[in-house]
TrEMBL record:
It comes from Zophobihabitans entericus. It comes from the Bacteria. The lineage of its organism: Bacteria, Pseudomonadati, Pseudomonadota, Gammaproteobacteria, Orbales. This is Uncharacterized protein.
Amino acid sequence: MSIQIPQGCLEYPDTEELIEQCYALVDAIAESDHQRSKEVLFTLLKEKIKILRSCYQVEIGKKEIIMVSSPIN
């Protein structure tokens, strides 16, 4: 199982830690032999990805605002 997580969140100092936690959860899911454990870990992974997605969308929104508000030469 592979996962790609955007790493462009400039305003959130804990983003790198969240990314590392996601990788650790992916490894734990892959190594687990218990279906219920996999389900719980996968739920945690989805929550962490939602947080990262929110961070990324905020940063993208900020970049769009900057581009729109910049004067055109």
